[in-house]
Amino acid sequence: MILLGFQFDGVTSQSLDVKARLVNWVASPPLRNSFVTIPGKAGVADFGCDSAERIITVKCNIYPQHSMAALVARLDAVAGWLDPANGLQRLVLDDVPDRYFMARLQDALDCERLIRAAGSFELKFVCPDPHGYAITDEQFTINTAGSRTVTRSKGNTISQPEYRLKATIPAGTGNAIVISTNGQQLAIGGPLASAETLIVDSELMTAKVVDGSGATLRNGLPLLTELGFPTLRTGNNTISIAATGTASFTQLLVQAKSRWR
What we know:
The chain is mainly β. The protein has 2 domains: 2-130, Elongation Factor Tu (Ef-tu), domain 3; 139-260, Jelly Rolls (Sandwich). The protein is built from 1 helix and 24 strands. Strand 18 (197-201) and strand 19 form a beta hairpin.
């Protein structure tokens, strides 16, 4: 067993006098295979696979309390803390401190009474998104047009980054900023003012234009003349930026959103 505590929604298990241990570690989430049986053909046709949800199981103990009533009061506090009605919250395991999961409790909190007024129970957290995300994310800033290599050192699978573009792009055909990420092209037309920032989120497949204070001004998807949401692989990635027509490039901020399977 691996001894640890954990943090959920910014609250630590230690603060509620809960002793926790990780009973196993799933190095990669379960797979959902897409197989189709073809009559008259041996085996199956393989249409690939993707990942199912991740389940994280933590076994917990509460040290002996003064009375059964005190144990129940402690469990009430834990149940309120982990209430799944609050939705997905950030889960950080002490023994895997470099990443977090978005999780909620999946099963009942069923405590077995031990000697005196101590208790033992198992927590099963479900992560609809099975990836673990870097707590301290990687960020890259590009201030000049041309080609640049950025290196992702965290995670073990492709990430879906967020791009923040500052540029001046007048309205009109031929005015654009073209960003190519490992050969995948994203073309952005106008209008985009110098005081505005276009935010492209590959994970949510959305884009918006914000002002200097971060307030949303308008939907940014109409500015994307070529819709190729970028991804970043682990290791080296080549990002090329070119301005066409009368457009001028100022800065590209890349939030990697590095992650693990």
